[in-house]
# Entry
Amino acid sequence: MSIASISADLSLEIRGAVAIVRLTRAAKRNAINDGLVLSLRNVFEGFGPEVKAAVIEGEGEHFCAGLDLSEISERDAVQGMHHSRMWHKALEAVQFGPVPVIAALHGAVVGGGLELASATHIRVADESTFYALPEGSRGIFVGGGGSVRVPRLVGVARMTDMMLTGRVYNAQDGERAGFAQYLVPQGQALNKAIELAEKIAQNAPTTNFALTHVLPRIADQSADHGLMTEALMAAIAQSAPEAKERVKAFLEGRANKVQKG
# Structure
């Protein structure tokens, strides 16, 4: 196990095949500034081949309380667009990086924090978690990909309601709405996320790639194009030597069968 401080705002811990990326601005409720955005991009683009899955979490009482408004500078429209695109590139490095990413959520998952969480592939929330998009009440609009990713989790109507009215979802209602796939007791989100990451790290790399890179794109395609993309990906995956060995192990009784949960 190794821990490295990437910047004053971010640390990276390697546990076997799992990378744990930790926001370390606890005094600011892990609010996101430009330095943190750029550090996230660098980390997720820089994983070595030993990393097979990643977990992202926040130090202290909150996952991430959103954009650090104290560091906002005045920008004209073009500068504002470039700033938003910087966020897009960083969160695309999370969503479309080399490995599946699990978010361990607790406390505030607000604004930019929800945008970051929605860029991950699996979200585990504990009972202290709450979700909000306060940009509407502050006269601004989401700029980190939230308008694309959040509706895919919970629908356009829910996001519209949250931004128009300031509605806050608690952990239980948020899990039912689709913000998180797992809800665990308070303080257990990180342990559950690491458990899932360790399991995911054992999957065939081609399958993990298909699920994190290809499946989201199939969802954007027409049915006909999606089915063709699926057929191509299925052919590639099953032709890999590791896939052939795993199927052989199952047929020979050396692999576990699916059990009722």
Q: What stands out?
A: The chain has ten helices and ten strands. The mean pLDDT is 92.
